[in-house]
Amino acid sequence: MKRMLLVFCLSCLLVIPGFLSAQTENETGLIKMGLSADVLDGLVRDKGGEPRLQEISDGSGYDFVATDWFGAEDAGAVAATGNIDDPPQLTCPDDGSVHAGDIFTSTDFSVTDPDGDTALVSFLDISPPATNDAAVIENHVEWVTTCEEHGDYTIRLVATDPSGLEDTCEFTVNVYNQAPQLTCPDDDSVHAAYTLVSTDFSVADLDGDSVMVTFLDINPPAMVSPTIVDSHVEWRTFLDENGDYVIRLVAADSCGLEDTCEFKVTVYNRPPELTCPNDDSVHAGETFVSSDFIAFDPDGDFISLGLLDINPAPTNYPRIAGSHVVWVTTCDEEGDYVIRLVVSEVCIPADTCEFTVTVYNQPPDLTCPDDDSVNAGDTLVSTDFSVTDPDGDTVLVAFLDITPPATNNPTIVANHVEWVTTAAEGGDYAIRLVATDSCGAEDTCEFNVCSRTSADFTISAAPDTQYVTRGQSKDYLVKLTSLFGYAETCTLFVSGLPSPPDSGVFDQDTLIPTDSTTLNVYTTTDTDTGWYTLTITAQGPSAKLSVLQHSTQVMLYVEKATDVGDWTDNPNSPKSFALLQNQPNPFNPETQIIYYLPRACQVKLNIYNVLGQKIRTLFDGYQGTGMQSLLWDGRDGDGVELGSGIYFYRLEADDFHQTKKMTLLK
Questions:
Q1: Which domains does the chain have, with CATH numbers?
Q2: In this structure, are strands 103-105 and 63-66 parallel, antiparallel, or unpaired?
Q3: Which of 21, 102, 278, 350 is deepest in the core (most CB within 10 A)?
Q4: Which residue, 610, 594, 592, is CA-closest to 647?
């Protein structure tokens, strides 16, 4: 079997005459040799003009034989022998990663060519598209990334030999950028108008990027924004900032990735605390010095204390001295004064307090000499008067007036009164004295002097007050006293008796002055209960009644058999606590205070003066059910006689409290 060898030269191709044609038996093999059908066409054709090419391989290249379509070999064919060109072989760099914004430098790629050709490697494309293309530098790839790129990018390379044969490969580059991690300072607090210096914040970046921490915002808005100083926050607060503020910080890396955090700052300013001095009192005209006040600021702020006001307005205003209040009062001031103090600091409104100072000046208590008499033309030397001052003031006693007017005014000599009468002055005279303390507070009293131009007498009766149960009787001792030798027989009368009208009987209804008798007053079971004022009169035989008739009065209280004692069986008895009006009223020197208790209980009865000061406790103890009575002799708790004036008695029994007024008149 004839074979025709076709030898391919590397430098040229031998073209077989036109009757040869080549038809590949192995299309794949020819393409791998880099020959196309156009190249083979015209190399080998049969005599009919139809190409026919058959591959014979011996391992060192490719041999071809030309045959016709019937398989017959053509001995006249031109034989050609040659090798077909192979493409280069390209191996890409390893997959890699790069921080966004940095330059990626790959590992080396490798390229070989089976034919020993020199192959050119170049960048083909990148997917997804990037800002910058990758570049082949020597035997590796460099790619300049930007901060906008993130994720996986596929880079393709191509290797091309001089014949234009190519090989491609691809590798993956991961572009990453992790955000920084910011931890804020601890929650904190700061005093208003002070500067906050926070604890340190911390920031980390897993990529090792340079990170900048800045202030983001503060809520609610502040007058001055916080600032970053080194690794902490400083914030200057102002006076009117108070409450919770949220500060936010932001950390940004070189590519602008951010992390935020927030922390809370409480701006505080606690108010000062002011405790006023105790309520107090001062004598008018003296200097008041209070107890200490207490001013304290829980934040340790500087505070100032001052007088806010005083009401009512005084002549002199108080002042602050150390930790107390000093006030120079005058004699014109009396009563309760409310002093208000104020403590303040620069940051907040003031705190105030108030206390009360009672300015008092109790008048002196003047007791006049006893009523007296004097022979017209003689000098009266009275008994001693007495004067006391509850406040211990110096008191001056002076003559005030005499009624009717006299030729000579009485005078004060030591502690008694002297009055030089004239022979023409006869009758009753009322002399008034006045006691004045250092602030001008006064008390007056009067006593009567009978200036006698002839003989006369006086009448008296005792006791001045008595209580009698209906159906029983009481006795009064009546006495006449002779003046200037009066010795005429006097007739006694009584008026104001309870029913019946003749219920008063004298043991003797006529008396000679210096003698005495008994007045017996009896009642019946029908006598009306209540107070009776009995007027006892002695009348001499003379027709000059203004001189020779004198009277005195006594009090009698007629009560039911159940008025005193246990009233629980009496259907008309009170069903609740009751405090009756004292009897007599006005009184001198003693009075009866009656009250009813519907049940046994603890009882207290106190006496007060017009200033509300307790001067005596008449009773403090346990009492049984029924009507109770107490006698007050017009003295205080120390046994000192009290002067004329208005007094109050107050009953406290269980939850019952009642106060009534009474008058002591001397």
A1: 1-84 (no CATH), 89-176 (2.60.40.10), 181-268 (2.60.40.10), 278-360 (2.60.40.10), 365-452 (2.60.40.10), 456-559 (2.60.40.10), 578-664 (2.60.40.1930)
A2: unpaired
A3: 21
A4: 610
Look at 257 and 17; give whichever has higher pLDDT. Answer: 257
**Residues 6 or more apart whose Cβ sits within 8 Å of residue 603:** 597, 619, 620, 621, 622, 623, 628, 651, 652, 653
Host H or E run for residue 452:
strand 442-452
Distances (CA, A) of 605 to 617, 640, 646: 6, 19, 17
- CA separation for the pair 270, 123 (Å, rounded): 73
Residue type, 202: S
Question: Euclidean distance between the first and final Cα of the chain, in Å?
Answer: 182
The beta-strand segments (E) located in 560-644 are 578-579, 591-597, 601-608, 614-623, 626-632
445, 433 in Cβ contact below 8 A? yes
Break the chain down into helix, strand, coil percent, rounded to 5: 0, 50, 50
Measured between alpha carbons, how far is 582 from 660 in angstroms, rounded to an integer? 8
Residue keyed to tokens 């209280």: 557
- Distance, CA of 61 to CA of 33 (rounded, Å): 10
| Furthest CA-CA distance within the chain | 213
Q: Which residue has the higher pLDDT, 585 or 455?
A: 585
Q: What DSSP string describes 392-430?
A: ----EEEEEEEES--SS--EEETTEEEEE--TT--EEEE
The DSSP letter of residue 24 is -
> With the C-alpha atoms ordered 609, 610, 614, 619, is the resulting torsion angle positive or negative?
positive
pLDDT digits (tens, 9 = 90+) for 94-128: 999 999 999 999 999 999 999 888 999 999 999 99
Residues in Cβ contact with 294 at an 8 Å cutoff, skipping those fewer than 6 apart: 273, 274, 275, 323
Tens digits of per-residue pLDDT, 128-178? 999 999 999 999 999 999 999 999 999 999 999 999 999 999 999 999 999
The type of residue at 188 is D
Return the C-alpha torsion angle 217, 218, 224, 225, nearest 10.
Answer: -30
Cα 602 → chain centroid: 42
| Token pair for 15 | 């073209």
What is the Cα–Cα distance from 137 to 339, expressed in whole angstroms? 95
Beta bridge partners of 341: 307, 353
Question: How many Å apart are CA 148 and CA 60, to the nearest integer?
Answer: 55
Give the span between the Cα atoms of 13 and 64, in whole angstroms.
14
Residue 255, token pair as written in the block: 């590519």
Count of C-beta atoms within a 10 Å radius of residue 466: 16
pLDDT digits (tens, 9 = 90+) for 592-649: 999 889 889 999 999 998 777 899 999 999 998 888 899 999 999 999 999 888 899 9
CA–CA separation, 139 vs 245, rounded Å? 60
Distance CA 417, CA 412 (A): 5
Q: What is the 3-state secondary structure (H, E, C) of 275-305?
A: ECCCCEEEECCCEEECCCCEEECCCCCCCEE
CA-based torsion, 292, 293, 296, 301: positive or negative: negative
